[in-house]
Amino acid sequence: MDILILGCGYTGRRVAERFIATGAHVTVTTRHPQKLAGLNAEIIALEDVPAHLRPGALVLHSIPADGPSNVLDLLGSRPARVVYLSTTGVYGTASLVDENTPVDTGTDRARARIEIEQAISAGPWSSLVLRPAAIYGPGRGIHESIQRGVYSLSDTYVSRIHVDDLAAHAEAALLSIVTGAYPVADEDPCTSREMAEFCASLLHLQLRQSAGAEEPKSRFASNRRVDGSAIRRLLGITLKYPSYRTGVPASLNDGCIM
Predict the structure, then answer these.
(1) Residue-wise DSSP of 18-57
(2) Angle made by CA atoms 77, 12, 229, in degrees to the nearest 5
(3) What are phi and psi of 208, to 5 degrees?
(4) Which residue positions in the chain have pLDDT lower than 70?
(5) CB atoms closer than 10 angstroms to residue 73
(6) Helix, strand or coil for residue 180?
(7) Which of 4, 100, 197, 234 has the lowest CB atom count within 10 Å?
(8) Is 104 helix (H, G, I), strand (E, B) or coil?
């Protein structure tokens, strides 16, 4: 089995490791090869994809929308399947999101993501779009930023997904025949205030109630509760971390993989 991961970063590395453990041949692209030290995969530059991509390969596309514009051209017609990691940001101001929520093209960032989704869906391969909520895990999330005094005490809701659970979704998605586009999230959305207070308690930190302690509001502009149960059912996923209440402590114990 041949796997190609385009943009092998925080999530992609974990997906690569899952496939490597099964004996698959894994090729990855990255702008930062030094961050993939110890990964038993073939590491190439993005422009070298045509020379390395084997017919029938399974491709995980996780390059941000502001990346190179010719990514799909590099794939040609060789992949059997392409899975794209998008974002719940495409839902705009929707406060309750599930598999039936329409996308919102009200921002340039959302439009760019949606254009990539549409191009992948129209390609000569089987495809699935996963739209993850906020991704957290070892080295990433409020449990990390709060130690730098960066957090929000807003009462707006945020949905999240632990990176290991997202990697499980991506692996299952590549091996499945499910098509379409689905949001991905855990089962326990909470307010930014609840998360900050939970993390502060774990880390024995004192929260300041002043606005000066908060991260810039743009980082917490959404107020979104995401239901990711549909894609879990279709892919047969059981979350390892259904709530931040288990995912954050595990992330703090696991250390940092960047």
Answers:
(1) HHHTTT-EEEEE-S-GGGGTT--SEEE-GGGHHHHPPTT-
(2) 90
(3) -90, 140
(4) 210-221, 255-258
(5) 10
(6) strand
(7) 100
(8) coil
Which residue type is seen at 256? C
Query: In degrees rounded to 5, what are phi and psi of residue 129?
Result: -105, 125
The C-alpha atoms of residue 5 and residue 8 are separated, in whole angstroms, by 6
Q: Give the end-to-end CA distance of the chain in Å, rounded to a whole number.
A: 26
- Quick one: pLDDT at residue 254? 81
Of 125, 135, 126, nearest to 13 (Cα)? Answer: 135
Domains annotated on the chain, with CATH: 2-254 (3.40.50.720)
Tokens of 101: 């929520």
Contact of 237 with 171, CB cutoff 8 Å: no
Which residue type does 34 have?
A: Q
What pLDDT sits at residue 115? Answer: 96
pLDDT on residue 210: 55
Report CA-CA distances (Å) from 72 to 46, 61, 176: 11, 9, 21
Query: Is 6 within 8 Å of 62 (Cβ atoms)?
Result: yes
Helices (H), the chain: 10-20, 49-52, 71-75, 108-121, 142-145, 163-175, 192-203, 229-235, 244-254
